[in-house]
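A favour, since you know our structure tokens better than I do. What I am after is a single protein written out in full by you. Could you add the entry underneath, on a fresh line?


***
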Amino acid sequence: MVRPADASGAGRLLAFEVARCLYALPIESVLEVAEAERATCVPGLRTDMAGVMNWHGDPLPIVASDRLLARDGAAADEATPARGVLREQVLVLSDRGDEAARLGIPVDRVVGLIEGRAPLGRATDLVVERRPVDGRVVAVLDPRLLVARAGDIIERAVA
């Protein structure tokens, strides 16, 4: 497990890959990069959509990154991810900037830290900026909207 340093991470983004696409989150929102453990299914919820993982003795909701990062709600409902919540690593996020984990995002690979801050202000889209890094386009995500979208996916799935 890798824990990002709080002080040295200011002004940086953590880049990661999902299905060969490159994304980034403000390092302040990432509590931990954890090795993926077996996710437990939640009654009434398909395992290709979401599950729960033990995170330091607390339950951590995990939503399939394929659904979470879909471009719109309809695509998220119709998506059929190949591996659901089974990935190599899980990013443990907080959308409030505290130590309370709110969401686990399964990722294929953590690329590392890149310079730059997430754009300031109230975002209305999950992707708040697209920027070039080493010849690839990185989609910078809003952690607050990511956690909200995860909650919506779970609520719709069990309804």
